[in-house]
Amino acid sequence: MRADSTVIATSVSVRARLVMASLRAQRSKRFYGDPGEMVADLGRHQRASMTRPPWWLRRRVRYRSEEVAGTPCRWIEPAAGAGRVRVLYLHGGGFVEQPQHHHWRFLRWLVETTGASVVMPIYPLAPAADHRAIRRSVRAVYDLRVAIHPGPRVVAGDSAGGALAVDLACSVRDEDGRIPSAVALGSPWLDMGVSDPRSDEVDPYDPELDIDGLKMAGRWYAGPDGVGSSEINPLAGDLTGLPPTVVLTGTRDLLNPDARRFVSLADAAGVDVELHEYPGMFHNWYMHLLPEGEQARRDLAVFLGRTGCSDGTVSGTGVSRWNDVATCARRAAARICSVADHRPPRGLA
């Protein structure tokens, strides 16, 4: 296991504090904090318009869409054409949300930095679909668009997409299929029951996620099979034989215990696994314009280079490739004055 947490700066940047304050001011946590609110607001979080990229995505990369075995897919590729590396990206959102702007921004960075072609399935969402339909959708796209690729193949995902990525890699291994060359997990949700007591300790300081809503989303995803089965809960499965894997996690993310447990289990199973833990960082911070986000993206780029899954260089990971500086700072600054100071316990600051 390659663990890297001590070399990350322990102080949280001003920009990161502004973003967290903005999340609190927007009451981002309420969607997952109140199951009733989640049910009432599902329509807004599952809008079809969210599955189409923002206009600025096409500035520096190529974009196209297609349907694969009934699943809409979004392709993002280098401006010069298809890349040598192919990435299946599984977006997060608790199995109940469509991709958000930060997903599109991150995928553009990934394409520009690594030279890879990225395909993101728009898989069906809970509660209308449970794990059977969602996993079937993801697997079909992998088999028909990624497994057949002659070059390096990466399966990556954030949050709920992390669970899908691990499950996919395990299922392909079990069936003697063409396993991915590497797996990349960002802020992964790997315990659908959110059962680790350490998550309860982090919950009050997480500006975005909440345990009650995640548990309900996990039950929706599990359907009749329950959250404890290995098909639903990657932490309950056999991780032997997985390809090189990297995990990015922040200590202010209530899913941080999932990441730690996964890395311990994967290491014990003989997996070449890297853990990059960032003190004070929140869920999916690495998709935001932050110094800590730049560091995490650089670490991801180095991993992809080490595993032969990148044609780029880490020099492309800087903030110059992120075009939302003014917007992010302006929104956060406008709200910071109205947000109370939340001071986490030692180790979370």
Layout of SSEs?
Layout: E1 2-4, H1 14-25, H2 30-33, H3 35-45, E2 61-68, E3 71-78, E4 86-90, H4 101-114, E5 117-121, H5 131-146, E6 153-158, H6 160-174, E7 182-186, H7 197-202, H8 211-222, E8 245-250, H9 256-268, E9 273-278, H10 291-306, H11 325-336
Parallel strand pairs: 1-9, 4-5, 4-6, 6-7, 7-8, 8-9
Antiparallel strand pairs: 2-3, 3-5
Helix pairs in contact: 1-11
Structural commentary:
The chain has 349 residues and is an alpha/beta fold. It has one domain (2-336): Alpha/Beta hydrolase fold, catalytic domain (Rossmann fold, 3-Layer(aba) Sandwich). It contains eleven helices and nine strands. The chain has helices spanning 14-25, 30-33, 35-45, 101-114, 131-146, 160-174, 197-202, 211-222, 256-268, 291-306, 325-336, and strands at residues 2-4, 61-68, 71-78, 86-90, 117-121, 153-158, 182-186, 245-250, 273-278. Strands 1-9-8-7-6-4-5-3-2 form a nine-stranded mixed sheet, sandwiched between helices. Helix 1 (14-25) packs across helix 11. The longest helix has 16 residues, at 131-146. The radius of gyration is 19 Å and the shape is globular.
